[in-house]
Amino acid sequence: MPPRPESGTLGDNPTLKARRIPRRNAMNAMEQLLTFLGRPRFSRRERVRRTWEWIASAKDYVTSCYPAAKARRDFDTIRTYFTFIGIGRSGSTLIESLLDAHPNIICANRQNALRYFETGLFRSFQIYYLLIRNSRRMAAVNRRSGGYAYSVPNQWQGRYTQLTAIGDKPMMSFAISRLDAKPWLPARVVDVTGAELKLIHVIRNPYDVIATRSLRYHTTIEAEIAGYFATSATTVQVLNRLPHDANSRVSLFQSRHEAFIADPELRLRSLCAFLSVEVDDTYIMDCVGIVNATPHKSRFKVQWDAASIKKVQGEIQNIPFLSGYDYDA
Q1: How far apart, in whole angstroms, are the C-alpha atoms of residue 278 and residue 257?
Q2: Residues of the chain with CATH 3.40.50
Q3: Cα–Cα distance for residue pair 93/99, rounded to 1 Å
Q4: Residue 13: its pLDDT value, please?
Q5: Cβ contacts of residue 107 below 8 Å, gap of 6+?
Q6: Phi, psi of 80 (to 5 degrees)
Q7: Sign of the CA dihedral running 14, 20, 26, 30
Q8: Structure confidence at residue 128 as a pLDDT band (50, 70, 90)
Q9: pLDDT digits (tens, 9 = 90+) for 226-269
Q10: Which residues, including other chains, have CB under 8 Å from residue 109's CB and lie 6 or more apart?
Q11: How far apart are CA 217 and CA 103, in angstroms?
Q12: For 261-314, what is each residue's pLDDT tens digit?
């Protein structure tokens, strides 16, 4: 009988594959268990999603224990933990990829690491290891995401020399919903990591975000308008709850996508300074080299009616961080 393969480590033998349980059967089995346990306040879809998330987190916990403990000395120099917040399709993936190219920064893509802090079980070095593993995997596929490749030549994506800042660009709706439902989460991050927590909020013209989401997800403009401004209102609530005193270990950096594209060198230097990392001209020039000359105005790729344009403009007035945006700008 062949040996049973071990799972969950970076050193797995790729020729050994465990037998997969059909997804439908697994979901049905979990649903039966959840029905037995009784979770009436959640829909069936939400219960199944939460269960899959719990299973994924449990697997990450087990598979990170040994390799993370082995590498924990690499993490002694970390002083900053950061996470992106906001709304998806706003240009955060570009900035995340540029940060990951810095030799003193690791930035994961959609690791959704806030869930690890939420459990109260993960040690900081386990979370760091999982973020690095994600970064390496993204670098191996040239940082491909959403149909684009964000690889920065000659730089350090997926690698580092001495880590001083580490973070995650989670699924944006995930981050905001978590921070809104659990206001104590920023303090938990600071307690677990012992580092400063820095939030990066990337903002883009709402007409472009709504149009991009409508095209990508094959939804109506009306549905995306409702979803966009519901999330924006939640984001305002989260931002208003952040501490503003000088001694706080939680801070915020806001960047408009259009301003970043217009002057990527200045904006990237400012962001790196916010994360307390030094930069050299080679890093900056290599990063600037992959940035488009002009922002992509996807709003002109969909059909807008006058009522929808007016509705978005009216909603913009209620969201402070969207001030100044309009359809024609």
Answers
A1: 22
A2: 75-322
A3: 10
A4: 38
A5: 82, 96, 97, 99, 100, 131, 135, 166, 167, 168, 169
A6: -135, 130
A7: negative
A8: very high
A9: 999 999 999 999 999 998 887 899 999 999 999 999 999 999 99
A10: 93, 96, 97, 134, 135, 138, 143, 145, 168, 169
A11: 35
A12: 999 999 999 999 999 999 999 999 999 999 999 999 999 999 999 999 999 999
* Residue 49, amino acid: R
**Could you tell me the sign of the dihedral formed by the alpha carbons of 238, 244, 248, 251, in that order?**
positive
Amino acid at site 70: K
Cα torsion 26, 31, 37, 41: sign: positive
Q: Which amino acid is at 11?
A: G
Give me the mean pLDDT over the 198-205 stretch: 98
Confirm if 154 and 222 have CB atoms less than 8 A apart. Answer: no
pLDDT for residue 313: 97
Q: Is the per-residue pLDDT at 172 higher than 90?
A: no
CATH code at 75-322? 3.40.50
Measured CA to CA, the distance from residue 282 to residue 326 in angstroms comes to: 36
Tell me the backbone φ, ψ of residue 77, rounded to 5 degrees: -95, 0
SS (H, E, C) the chain: CCCCCCCCCCCCCCCCCCCCCCHHHHHHHHHHHHHHHCCCCCCHHHHHHHHHHHHHHHHHHHHHHHHHHHCHHHHCCCCEEEEEEECCCCCHHHHHHHHHCCCCEEEEECCCCHHHHHHCCCCHHHHHHHHHHHHHHHHHCCCEECCEECCCCCCCCCCCCCCCEEEEECCHHHHHHHHHHCCCHHHHHHHHHCCEEEEEEEECCHHHHHHHHHHHHCCCHHHHHHHHHHHHHHHHHHHHHCCCCCCCCEEEEEEEHHHHHHCHHHHHHHHHHHCCCCCCHHHHHHHHCCCCCCCCCHHHHCCCCHHHHHHHHHHHCCCHHHCCCCCCC
Position 244, amino acid: H
